[in-house]
Amino acid sequence: MIIKAAFTAVFLFSVANALAVEALPDLTPITRPTPIPVDPCLRGGTMTYWVRARAKPGDGSQKMPFPTIQQALAVADQNLACNLDIHVSVGTYSGNLNISRNTRILGEGASAPVLTGSILNSKGQTLVIHFFNIAGAADIALSQSGGTLELRQVTVSQTRRRSPGPEAGTAVMIKGGAQVVIEQGQLTENEGQALWISDPGTRVLTNGLRVEKNKVNPAALAAAASSDFSHSAAIEVTNDATLLAQNFSVTDNEFIGVLLHQRARAHFRQGTVSGTLDFANSSGIRGGNNFQIMSKAALELHGFVSERAQGFGVIVQDGYLTASTGQINNNVDGIAFMPPLPQANYDIGECFAEDISFQGNGVVNGGAIVPLPSVCNMSPPPPQCSQPPNCAFVPWSL
User: Fold this and answer.
1) CA torsion angle 252 254 258 261 (round to 10)
2) Residue 116 half-sphere exposure toward CB, CA atoms < 13 A
3) Residue 255 has pLDDT above 50, yes or no
4) Contact at 8 Å (CB) between 39 and 100?
5) What radius of gyration do the chain's Cα atoms show?
6) pLDDT surpassing 60 at residue 382
7) Cβ atoms within 10 A of the Cβ of 338, count?
8) What's the distance, CA 266 to chain centroid?
9) Three-state SS for 374?
10) Does residue 353 carry a pLDDT above 80?
11) Are 134 and 115 in contact (CB under 8 A)?
12) Which of 40, 115, 137, 335 has its CA 20 to 30 Å from the CA of residue 28?
């Protein structure tokens, strides 16, 4: 497969570096956001507290734990701690957590503790969460702006819509140049997006992430009527942000499975996006697309499966796609390169596909709609490949 060297350097990464935030590749030179001032800290080292649901009021020691996570955060603030470790026993905890200093929240016990509120890190602190559940939060369950975030064995589910905005119901929101690692997590059954990633310098690496049965916010559907698809996908990468995903599963979500737009870049390696559900709004805008790439965004796929979409397996609209060693099977339509609305014509800058299996696609257009010459390496090649190469639209029945 022919890929420009600069494009390759952005996306290719080794498994050995997969979990190191600093190993994520830089893009073209960018202006990083101005750091947000953090609360002062005077006490070096790490303060450590224990929390147990329904415990009698204690001093935060292992023998006399605090009954709430908020109390541990408040005592650390009072003591101007620079770093904070909170060991949280199994149980259910309520209320929101506002992170004001470098914090690790470490779940302990036979099952992960559950928080029914939100975790908000707006000051760019380092936040680490291990073995923890967030369930039933209002509007946004976990928000990280700047700084670094590490999630391991974290489940975010059933985030509810309580405000009218299109972002309501979002499980995880990452912005402001944050550097993020998500390992073996689940984002499921939220009333809005599962994962929203935005802003120059924001880089997210996921390994073993499952994104399942998330809904689309009706306010986002209304915006889609004017070709603004923001907040309408289970996973959205936008505004120059970067996502590297491996060993992923994105299944049975509404409207759009994975959306890239506004010059975002993503590499999906070794995983499946399947079963994205069509969802018509009052203006007739339809979805059901597993992957949707728009407005100068770029997607690289390798070792992937895109199947059972009620729309397209992959659709590219004024964007860039490279794909190798994958399957696009049993979708209403396979793959399409389309002009950006409302213009009727557009020139595809880069479009490659190699060693891709197309099977069982086709109700609307009889299979894949592909531009030449990107289909010429497919097996078997269609007869159009003997014609002079161009990027005209060529229906191809499989």
Assistant:
1) 180
2) 7
3) yes
4) yes
5) 22
6) no
7) 17
8) 10
9) coil
10) no
11) yes
12) 335
Identity of the residue numbered 77 = D
CA triple 189-122-113, angle to 5 deg: 45
H helical segments located in the chain: 5-11, 69-78, 218-224
3-state secondary structure (DSSP) of residue 23 = helix
Q: Name beta bridge partners: 121.
A: 144
Q: Give the angle 150-266-345 at the CA atoms, nearest 5°.
A: 150
Residues 99/125, Cβ–Cβ less than 8 Å? yes
User: Tell me: the pLDDT tens digits for 256-308?
Assistant: 999 999 999 999 999 999 999 987 655 566 789 999 998 889 898 899 999 99
Q: d(Cα 344, Cα 363) in Å, to the nearest integer?
A: 23
Residue 167 has pLDDT above 90, yes or no: yes
Query: In this structure, are residues 214 and 190 in contact, taking their beta carbons and an 8 Å threshold?
Result: yes
Both tokens of 129, joined, read 């969460």
CA distance 305 to 232: 22
Tens digit of each residue's pLDDT (9 = 90 or more) over 15-27: 233 333 333 344 3
The structure's pTM equals 0.82
- Phi first, then psi, for residue 10 (nearest 5°) are -65, -40
**CA-based nearest residue to 24, from 184, 239, 241:** 241
> Coil, helix or strand for 177?
coil
Integer angstrom CA distances of residue 177 from 73, 174, 205:
25, 8, 13
Give ∠ CA 127-250-97 in degrees, rounded to 5: 25
Residues, the chain: 398
CB burial string 232-267: b at 16+ within 10 A, e below: bbbbbbbbbbbbbbbbbebbbbbbbbbbbbbbbbbb
Residues contacting residue 207 through CB under 8 Å, at least 6 positions apart: 18, 19, 181, 182, 183, 184, 245, 246, 247
User: Which of 207, 141, 152 lies closest to 174, judged by CA?
Assistant: 141
Strands 179-183 and 148-157: parallel
In sequence order, which residues have a C-beta less than 8 Å from that of residue 46 and are 6 or more positions away? 81, 82, 83, 84, 85
pLDDT in tens, 174-184: 999 999 999 99
Give the other-Cβ count within 10 Å of 332's Cβ: 18
